[in-house]
Amino acid sequence: MSGRRLELRGMQDSLEASEAQRRQIEAEMASIRNDRGKLEAALLDMTRSVGATEAKVGEAEGRLDALLGSEDAIRRSLTSRRSVIAEVLAALQRMGRKPPPALLVAPEDMLQAIRTSMLLGSVLPEMRAETEALAADLSDLLQLRQSIAAERDALSGDAAKLRADRQHLAALIEARQSALSAAEQALGAERDRALDLAKQAATLKDLIARMESEVAAAARGAEAARRADEARKNAQEATPPDARRKTALAPFKDPARLAPATVFAETKGLLPLPVAGTLQRGFGAPDSFGGAEKGMLIATRTEAIVASPCDGWVAFAGPYRSYGQLLIVNAGQGYYIILAGMDRINVNVGQFILAGEPVAVMGDGSAKTAAAIAIGAAQPILYIEFRKDGAAIDPGPWWAKPELQKVRG
Question: Is Chloroplast there in the keyword field (predicted)?
Fold first, then answer.
């Protein structure tokens, strides 16, 4: 009964902590809901925190798998030598219980003892080696178990932080979208129109063209991108070269910006990867159909947060053929970023999004996209493609170098 009470008390404490956290998040939302700059800054910070924790959890899981593999190897080694160890221990026990016979009283017994000693002497070096190996293995096994326990404790703490951060991020995303979705009925009609176009469009190029000509929100985004390109061009002509270089080196500094701070072509080597994971196939690698890969495939954690790699306007958001959930971002100057394979998207067509801003969530890998099937992946796969004037280009030069090293695992 006392155990049951302790269990119920633990559940109550957990619920109280969750309720306190919820109230704290609601208070924060109330304070920043009407301040777009603060809301975007909080979104970017929390997305970075979630991404870092996801990467940390993935690394801890990798270390734990390696430790468990080492433990299994030592266990198998000990099991394989069990018969030899048993024979050695039995021989030592017999020697301890039966002292050597007297030389003159029973010479035949002494002869047998000598012969046994000679035989045992030939075994002793091997026995010593086996004993030393056994002691080393047992010591390693003890240290491994301690390391496994420590990794599990750390992993449990990181997993709890990840859950809390994801809850916080979900509240921030809801606050962002509610502030943007005043005309929800019109938005719903445009979403239905976008889904109809997705069924009709045979290619991504066709889908983009149809969206930006037949869906008002996408058309507004395309027009905003065109105006931003023109305004930036005029501003650059009037800006000294030193000031232009300074802006190009810090294009994502202002979280309240409503247009890209610099042209997409000048962000090479600066873009953050949209998700933490392991690179499975890169641009230009042989695909499964006799051609070359037009994008890159990254294996992610279950329910990993996907962030936009760049500033831009959402040209399409929704399911499309074998791509799964598809997001297309108009980055300006004829550049488009394509993200596919997510479980759900949390931005709307026509919406301006920032580099590093959360835009989607991965699934658990059960819904198979063409990209996942092509490489036989069991885990979720994010497909990333960059396009310039309708043609696929290598995204490699755009990624920040440390980020690219991380994604390679």
Answer: no
User: Other C-beta atoms within 10 Å of 113: how many?
Assistant: 17
H or E segment and range at residue 12: helix 2-32
We report the CATH number of the domain holding residue 381 as 2.70.70.10
Pair 160, 230 in one domain: no
What's the number of domains the chain is made of? 2
Do 263 and 321 fall into the same domain? Answer: yes
Residues 93 and 220 in one domain: no
pLDDT of residue 21: 60
Query: What's the predicted TM-score (pTM) here?
Result: 0.72
- Rounded to the nearest 5°, which phi and psi values hold at 264? -60, -35
**Residues forming a β-bridge with 332:** 335
Which structural domain range is residue 378 located in?
184-407
Render pLDDT for 176-226 as a digit per residue (tens, 0 to 9). 877 665 545 556 677 788 888 899 988 999 999 999 998 888 888 899 999
Asked if residue 302 lies in contact with residue 286, where contact means CB atoms within 8 angstroms, the answer is no
Taking the C-alpha atoms of residue 382 and residue 242, their distance in angstroms, rounded to an integer, is 38
Instruction: Using DSSP bridges, classify how beta strands 325-332 and 358-361 pair: parallel, antiparallel or unpaired.
Output: unpaired
Shortest CA distance to 272 belongs to which of 51, 60, 38, 50?
51
Q: Quick count: other Cβ atoms within 10 Å of Cβ 388?
A: 14
